[in-house]
Specification:
Elements (H helix, E strand, L loop, with lengths): L2 E10 L4 E9 L2 E7 L8 E4 L4 E4 L1 E6 L12 H10 L2 E6 L10 H11 L6 E7 L5 H5 L6 E5 L12 H10 L4 E4 L3 H10 L8 H5 L2 H18 L3 E3 L5 H10 L4 E5 L1 H5 L5 H4 L12 H13 L4 E2 L8 H4 L16 H10 L5 H15 L16 E11 L18 E11 L2 E5 L2 H7 L10
Parallel strand pairs: 1-4, 1-5, 6-7, 7-8, 8-9, 9-10, 10-11, 11-12, 12-13
Antiparallel strand pairs: 1-2, 2-3, 5-14, 14-15, 15-16
């Protein structure tokens, strides 16, 4: 592999921002030096005026292989990740067929290995009768347990089975924490309401709270490494604060940070997700939880569906939104607005995901770490447009949002895998129509 140096940029870690030079050799960071130093004969990559971040680690994506490659595949999903500065993804198991055994894991790996352009890992899925099989599985990032129903048929809605996974397996427990009985109760209550906003009523905040409370009692009882996916409510945050230990972590999604239930009127089913978008008070609390450490990381829950599916009546439309390409621009725009620091964004999207999930060689810009590097231009202002999105589903709830701050180069293992081209945007043009219902 080639050797080069990133010069004239500002290096961003989870602790500080400083002028520096990064030397890359054989796919690794060879050394990091303060200031603008003499690089000798080494090839120079001039990133003047730009910021150098560790490549983002997204611990929650659905790239839809196998079974639903009409919505996403690893070529398109990888390109979307790279354009979003994401260099490592962990993919969920609710495929068709689901990943619930070593055999299905290896089958999925064989399909993905030649298409993936980013680093990747897979979760195993929990069922009510595969505890022993999951316990013996090798090469997984963790076991995903759906306490409430979502896309696919995976569901573990009884605490006895959840307790078995906590006591009879050693894998990281990753929870979709919504109480299924609670969801069904509210579904009966709001039967007949076919408006998209009914989704936030049927999956009431109480359903998330009860699942988180029950799960964290078990996690504390067994001191079990447990991760809570897509936290979305004040009640969940209050509960996490009471139980917070080193072995408990939590994530929030960009769509919960930037959208609320007031947006159903504009976006309809496009923002139907599980768990649903919440009220403004919940959103404000999520931002505070990022700052005080209650939430450890941001993960996209990138879950693409076809726009024709999203345009169906509420009861027929699937839940999920794409997000792997837009996470970093949204957060960089928030930095420019003074809502969060750039160092905190690195902590939440690179350092903490790598450290909490034990992903070796990622999340830091230090000698010996993989040269997974994202270069961002904090002054670049552009309008999000479906024509520029790499996801196969080809739409975003953030279509037409004007954001300031974008990744412009993404390196994976020292290889330049993505580079912003203004000419590409100019060729397509900014005035384009979206075929969805916005």
């Amino acid at each position: 592999m080639k050797e080069f140096a990133l010069i004239n940029g500002k290096i961003v870690t989870h602790e500080k921002v400083f002028d520096g030079t990064i030397f890359v050799k054989d796919g690794k960071i060879d050394c990091v030096k303060d200031g603008h130093v003499d690089t000798g004969d080494v090839e120079k990559v001039d990133v003047s005026g730009k910021f150098i971040l560790p490549g983002l680690v997204d611990v929650h994506v659905h790239f839809r292989t196998p079974g639903n490659t009409e919505k996403e595949d690893w070529i398109h999903g990888s390109k979307a990740a790279l354009a979003g500065g994401v260099t490592t993804v962990l993919d969920m198991p609710n495929n068709n067929p689901p990943v619930v055994s070593q055999e299905s894991l290896e089958s999925k790996r064989a399909l993905v290995k030649d298409e993936a352009l980013v680093n990747f890992g897979f979760y195993a899925g929990a069922t009510k009768d595969n505890v022993s099989e999951v316990a013996a599985m090798k090469g997984i990032a963790g076991v995903k347990i759906y306490m409430g129903s979502s896309t696919g048929g995976l569901l573990v809605d009884d605490l006895q089975t959840l307790e078995k996974f906590m006591t009879e397996t050693d894998h990281l427990i990753v929870l979709h924490a919504e109480n299924e009985a609670c969801i069904r109760e509210y579904a009966r209550q709001f039967d007949g309401d076919e408006s998209p906003s009914a989704h936030s009523k049927i999956r009431d905040p109480r359903c998330a709270y009860e699942a988180v409370k029950d799960a964290l009692h078990l996690a504390k009882k067994y001191k079990r490494r447990t991760h809570l996916a897509h936290v979305s409510t004040v009640a969940e945050l209050d509960t996490i604060r009471k139980f917070k230990e080193d072995y408990i972590s939590a994530e929030v999604t960009p769509h919960h940070l930037f959208l609320t239930d007031a947006d159903y009127g504009q976006y309809g089913n496009l923002i139907r997700v599980n768990p649903p978008v919440r009220g403004l008070a919940d959103q404000v609390a999520l931002w505070q939880a990022l700052k005080d450490g209650t939430i450890d990381m941001i993960a996209t829950d990138h879950a693409p569906h076809l726009i024709v599916e999203k345009n169906l009546p509420y009861l027929q439309a699937p839940s999920g939104v794409p997000g792997v390409q837009t996470m970093l621009p949204l957060m960089l725009n928030a930095v420019n607005e003074g809502r969060i620091s750039l160092e905190k964004v690195v902590e939440l999207t690179s350092f903490n995901p790598a450290m909490k999930f034990g992903i070796l060689g990622k999340g830091l810009l230090e000698a010996g770490y993989d040269a997974d590097i994202t270069i961002v231009d904090m002054d670049k202002s552009e309008r999000i447009c479906h024509k520029f999105l790499w996801s196969k589903c080809n739409w975003s709830p953030f279509h037409n949002w004007v954001l300031k701050g974008f990744p412009v180069k993404t390196f994976v293992g020292g290889n330049l895998m993505y580079e912003w081209r203004d000419s590409f945007w100019e060729e397509i043009g900014q005035e384009v129509e979206f075929e969805g219902k916005i």
